[in-house]
Amino acid sequence: MKKRLVVLFVVAVTTVAWAGWIPQVSNTSLPLYDVCFVDSLYGWAVGGRMSWVDTSSYLICLRTTDGGSTWLKSWETSGSGYLTTVTFINRIHGWAMADSGLSIETTDGGVSWHNLPSPNPALVPFAERFVNDTFGYMLAGIRHMGMVDWSNVGWTTDGGLTWSERIPRAYQPIWLVGLDVQGPRWAWATGAWDSMVLTRDAGSTWLVNYLPNGYGWNYGVAFGDTSVGVAVGDIISRTSNGGFSWAQRPKPVSQRLTSAEMPDTGHAWACGESGVIIVSTDGGRDWNSQASGTASTLNKIWFINERQGWTVGNSGVILHTDDGGRSGVWENPQGSFQPLTSNLYLSGVPNPFTSYTSVPGRPSDRFTLYDISGRRVGTYKGNRIGEGLSPGVYFLKPEGQESKPLRIVKLR
User: Fold this and answer.
1) CB count, 10 Å around CB of 305?
2) pTM for this entry
3) What one-character-per-residue DSSP string does 260-293 give?
4) 374 & 248 share domain
5) Looking at the structure, do residues 252 and 105 belong to the same domain, yes or no?
6) DSSP letters along 344-405, please?
7) In terms of Cα–Cα distance, which of 262, 260, 215 is closest to 236?
8) Average confidence (pLDDT) over 2-20
9) How many domains does the chain contain in total?
């Protein structure tokens, strides 16, 4: 009987595996202030820039039909103000507003937009959310003699053609900037001096309430249903009774938080200054930091379920996760895995970049470049990197060192 000889070849491969928050190529360096997705593929982001030198401005809306792998310019113009908010109810019907009071609507997914009557030429909208083709809520202030007075809460029943408004008052005018809704009947808004208002009857009546601190700002509010919700800003607050009472929760970061999101009652995220992203997996009771890979302020965060989310911010930053934002890992040649957290690797400057980026090191240092799939792209010498690269996400590994990889993003 012949014996068969089996030879096994073991090949050692160095790979890069990145989970968590991945940069997407936005093709703009303008600040982005709001983002909205209706499913895992269709989404929109808006923003723009105001020049304080000549008061000129630029407004931009981006759209994607592939989850953000490709972002296209849906609408752009130079003019008055910049787009502050965007809301869609399905893949085709959406609205956006600028800080100049400009209101636009699309019925083809953002391929084309048309103007709506402005509720007030001096309007400065902070947030807008529609729940169906006709009913939506808005938070906005009024510009008066170069200043913005306290914000109002309004609602529409005809798709944004006309708006009703009511100023909830307590002992002082209330600045309201953060908004969330659950269907047409329930809505919550938060703002200055830890003020909070809520309605349970589609805006007919509003309850004025306060969050625990009493003197800070709360920029974001999010509910997983009509009972469990969180509010974030200078502090973090949580409610389990629809916003009638709130309890302050520990805040794991010192930076101000700008936006919150709850796709269900168990999971919550918030983003903020200096690229901060935090997460709760127990309905907002306890929070932990996540590695975003950016130092840019993040202005808005959006999740469609407990795994898939996006956040947008200054300098055209768009980040995406499809695993709930878990930290990434670097697999070194010895096969051991090391976690990547925000303070374990350095970033190029600028990053993202368009032509080249400079990374810490000496002119004689050598870096091996990998793409996001782990494929070796090439070797660079010196600290000026990026010329000749295609747009995308790359990892740089210093040769001869056990340092964590440097992540860089080329926009175009």
Assistant:
1) 13
2) 0.77
3) EE-SSSS-EEEEEGGG-EEEESSTTSS-EEE--S
4) no
5) yes
6) TS-B-BSSSBSS-EE-SS-TT-EEEEEETTS-EEEEEESSEE-TTPPSEEEEEEETT--PPP
7) 260
8) 40
9) 2
